[in-house]
Recover the amino acids of this structure.
């Protein structure tokens, strides 16, 4: 049964975990790569990953004998490497221009749908009815799509200097998030 309060709680929880606004510097960097990013494809892939993990997450991890801590540590390593890329201005994740640059990796996974999002989905499923969680996912995907589509406009508004500042600040924040995940799961 749909509940406005439950939908709002799920939506805000996912919004905080996904943190698409905090990913703007990464999105701008990915846009500059050959092949750029495709908002529709990234949003669709992220949505599919979230729904599949919502229904099959525990089974998938169990099938491979992976616990949540190991999964979170793997996500922390990827986040750490993305932060190093941003901080040092180097490229560790190669992008295939024909596959859409960084649309799938690292944008859809792990930035939009990372270990934090996946484990949060499992927790939300335990706390709220499935329709409320699905609506919360859909609302977040609409917002993610809007930010991805608006990224050229955002880039024009903040300029190159603003982009450099955001990239450096958020690279340190991403490093801190990665370290926090390491500490919490090691």
């Amino acid at each position: 049964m749909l509940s406005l309060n439950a939908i709002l709680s799920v939506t805000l929880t996912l919004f905080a975990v996904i943190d698409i606004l905090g990913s703007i510097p990464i999105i701008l960097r990915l846009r500059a790569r050959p092949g750029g990013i495709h908002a529709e494809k990234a949003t669709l892939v992220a949505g599919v990953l979230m729904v599949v993990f919502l229904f099959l997450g525990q089974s998938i991890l169990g099938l491979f004998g992976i616990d949540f801590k190991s999964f979170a540590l793997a996500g922390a390593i990827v986040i750490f490497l993305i932060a190093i890329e941003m901080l040092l201005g180097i490229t560790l994740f190669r992008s295939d221009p024909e596959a859409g640059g960084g649309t799938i990796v690292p944008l859809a996974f792990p930035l939009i749908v990372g270990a934090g999002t996946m484990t949060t989905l499992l927790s939300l499923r335990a706390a709220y009815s499935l329709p409320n969680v699905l609506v919360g996912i859909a609302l977040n995907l609409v917002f993610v799509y809007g930010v991805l589509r608006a990224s050229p406009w955002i880039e024009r508004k903040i300029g190159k200097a603003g982009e450099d500042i955001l990239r450096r600040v958020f690279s340190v924040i991403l490093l801190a998030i990665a370290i926090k995940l390491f500490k919490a799961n090691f």
Summary: The mean pLDDT is 87. The CA atoms of residues 30 and 65 lie 33 Å apart.
